[in-house]
TrEMBL record:
Cited InterPro entries: 23S_rRNA-intervening_sequence, 23S_rRNA_IVS_sf
PANTHER family named in the record: FOUR HELIX BUNDLE PROTEIN
Pfam families in the cross-refs: 23S_rRNA_IVP
Name assigned to this protein: Four helix bundle protein
TM spans (from-to): none
Species the sequence originates in: Carboxylicivirga mesophila
């Protein structure tokens, strides 16, 4: 079966795993957060991998960088929402720290993609 370019990206692979973790963690949130933080966290985490996939399909490095930056911004949105979730005791500090560690790893790889593509101009 054909493998698309984005499927080869380390950042995409990490973000895919991150989505699964976000879904697992948010399944334990209070029911009244279903349309609040749960929805926001899930959509933002999916947006990371989606923007990486879309960016990899762009022909110009400038366009690729733009989508990789969108992915990074979505990652920062997720981290912020996780911090708020910990503030409201929806997740423990330990879970927050684990997810922040995952986010930091994804962040570093996305930043590498941005730097690599900026040098192609």
């Amino acid at each position: 079966m054909q493998q698309f370019a984005f499927e080869k990206l380390t950042a995409w692979k990490l973000s895919r795993r991150f989505v699964s973790r976000i879904y697992k963690v948010t399944s334990m949130f209070p029911e009244d957060e279903k349309y609040g933080l749960v929805s926001q966290l899930r959509r933002a985490s999916i947006s990371i991998s989606s923007n990486l996939a879309e960016g990899s399909s762009r022909l110009s490095p400038v366009d690729q960088v733009r989508f990789y930056q969108y992915a990074y911004s979505s990652l920062m949105e997720v981290i912020n929402q996780l911090i708020l979730s910990a503030d409201m005791s929806f997740i423990s500090i330990e879970i927050l720290n684990e997810l922040r560690k995952d986010g930091s790893e994804i962040s570093n790889v996305i930043n590498g993609l941005v730097k690599s593509n900026r040098s192609k101009k």
